[in-house]
Structures
1.
Amino acid sequence: MSTQSNQHIDDQELIVRFRKDGNNEWLGILLQRYTLLLYGVCLKYLKHEEEAKDAVQQVFIKALDELQKYPVSYVKSWLYMIAKNHCLMKLRNKNGKTTDWDDRYLAEPDEIADRDEMMRKERDVELLSKAMQELNDDQRLCITLFYLEKKSYQDIVEISGFSLMQVKSHIQNGKRNLKIHLERMQNNER
């Protein structure tokens, strides 16, 4: 089963197929769609790339476990909440406490500015995630492997089966298309 050929299947259908035949590849396709969003959320809270990558893996494990037990209607927002809660718990365990949005009234002006900046970044990550879904499967795969998973061109050649020139082309065209999609989305928000 090719992950790329199943990108057209909607989230709910992937869950139905998983529940029907128990094949984890259906969930793999589903989680791959939201890797960028989850990474952005985790990076926003944890502030370190490696910690964020580890957190995404932990969120995937938790999501796989939970999807087998409970019905989920809105996968994207559900995954977002799992990631946010995971990061907050990680910060709480690390610092002995955590800050939540509700204590805004107790915050100093600098803290409010930092939170506003984090909310802006969160919006940007959300837009980037949507823009990634607009790319064709080959571009999305190469962009994800190169920028998020920090794979080399040669690694991507081996993983994807594309030639080196195809990998470079998919990355270059993907970057250009991401920029176009992001600009369009930002203009639509105004």
2.
Amino acid sequence: MGGVSAEAVLDLLPQTQCRRCGYDDCRGYAQAIADDGAEVNRCPPGGAEGVDRLARLTGRPALPLDASCGHEAPRALAVIDEAWCIGCALCLKACPVDAIVGAAKRMHVVIDELCTGCELCVPVCPVDCIAMIGASGDRTGWNAWDPARADQARDRYARHAARLGTSGDAAAEVQVATTRQETIAAALARAREARAPR
């Protein structure tokens, strides 16, 4: 790979930790580029400019963004509908940068300036109370993000992983979240049925 280090690649990624690239996190993708020759066009949050940066670093061609990973779009921000939030806390663990605060059985809220727009909180919510809204107007990729935000997200992700003692087995963690989500959904269905007029 011409001696390009995973750290050098990681420094060029936006650190949203969104997993759209197909890897567990930005570090996993950086490692795959450096060690396994993974393509440099798998990061939608970095967009075309991100692909160009990675191509220059690695000496690889700047291919169009891989459509199977998503498309370049304005930065999004998660918003929780307070009226629907049941305080299940699934989104707290799902957020890779701890941008969501709350407690079990209490309403949760997203801290706007910390949200990376990764969307990982959306599928774990059993009541669909999380929506993604535009946060950067028409600006996309690195025009909608900046190195300071990337550094902040990288630091917060490291603290999040340390706090949770993340095993690195993303598939197992997703399965646990799915099981919890199914359990909560079943409990909600029973509660609705019990309240339904007879």
3.
Amino acid sequence: MPQIISLHDKNAIEVFVQRNPFLHLLELGDLDDFFWPYTIWYGWEVEGAIEQIALVYMALSPPVLLAYGDSPGEQADFIAALLPLLPTRLYAHLDPLVLDIVRTAFQIESHGLFLKMSLTDVSRADEIDTSDVMALTEDDEDALMALYAGFPQSQFTPRNLRTGHYYGLREQGLLVCAGGVHVYSPAYQAAVIGNVMTHPARRRRGLATRVCAHLCQMLMSNHIAYIGLNVEANNDAAIRIYERLGFEKQMEFGAYMLKSY
């Protein structure tokens, strides 16, 4: 009989996520020792084999639930069993088809539909001049916080500056565009680009394209095999940028704020 189990074995989790690494890229990166202490993992075991996984990432407030199925609607039983084990408030990436089940335990506030995209043409980023893009360090935390203050959807945490993969552009001393990684793992050759933001007064000038291109260049130079990102499904301008850089659409999912009744 299928059952939900707690997962603690990195190797077992890696075997599962490597079946579809671009779908589970955040999870793959979170196996890294830098992120692992902040993770709680669950599996759906069927006849002794793990058929589904879910990750609760505890380093953010509220925590983030990641639960992606290989095909639409297949996670219904797993999600139903998972609900009693979740925090009372969390941000979740889910298949919209499981929302009726989630609604039995949580109030749901939709934050829109998103696309997973993966870098499949690794040559395109090298075609873009990124010579004016600079590396950002922990000394740039205040400047980054000021830039991201206008973007409540940002999930930037200063700790991620320690990955060494945040980059930006300055004009007249002001940080006007920046981007980095949600996860980065040389050990698992995985990275998820995130928090790409341009100051509203400096948009439509290709700044984000240059920052993202440089970020991809640096990740690839560090032998990262799997590079992906999440983008709002209706953000056509951003999607065009990523497609120009060699990214390809993989799947659609919903983002939701969940609060228990």
